[in-house]
Amino acid sequence: MAAKKGTVPFSGTKEQEEALMQAIAELKDEKGALMPILQKAQDIYGYLPIEVQKMISDETGIPMEKIYGVATFYSQFTLNPKGKYRISVCLGTACYVKGSGDIYNALMEKLGIVGGECTPDGKFSLDACRCVGACGLAPVMMINDEVYGRLTVDDLDGILAKYD
């Protein structure tokens, strides 16, 4: 199955699969085991692709629908890999009224991905968030733990170039 545009094809290793199977074996008989299993799986793989969800389903007997429902309901889980540089644009009220929507749209265009996706080279991923607590610097984005404030669309090329 070919990966859709903006996603990195799944490429789990044998070591990762063995670690997942060990985690499932340790946790599957506990009440409420799905959440800790999903957390371990995401720790191992960095995200929860459909292939990993299927392994969890096969090993635990939990239906795929339930696993997918939990994985998409809780914001701590991601179905897509994250890039080496995780870009998060604040779309909270203060940032949005000062133009963060334009910044988010410009980043999607420059990176060739939509929110929630990762560039094919695995370098950048892009997400929106609701507030980073830096409203006085609006509009704000973060790249990993670095905060960039009082942004304009014209600032983006220079900022992205720092990560080459």
Automatic annotation (TrEMBL):
Q: Which cofactor does it need?
A: [2Fe-2S] cluster
| Presence of keyword Iron-sulfur | yes
Which InterPro entries does UniProt cross-reference here? Answer: NADP_DH_HndA-like (IPR028431), NuoE-like (IPR002023), NuoE_dom (IPR042128), NuoE_N (IPR041921), Thioredoxin-like_sf (IPR036249)
Q: Which UniProt key words apply to this protein?
A: 2Fe-2S, Iron, Iron-sulfur, Metal-binding
| Pfam families in alphabetical order | 2Fe-2S_thioredx
Cross-referenced Gene3D superfamilies: Glutaredoxin, NADH-quinone oxidoreductase subunit E
| Family, as annotated | Belongs to the complex I 24 kDa subunit family.
Name the UniProt record assigns to this protein:
NAD(P)H-dependent oxidoreductase subunit E
Species of origin: Ruminococcus turbiniformis
What taxonomic lineage is listed for the species of origin?
Answer: Bacteria, Bacillati, Bacillota, Clostridia, Eubacteriales
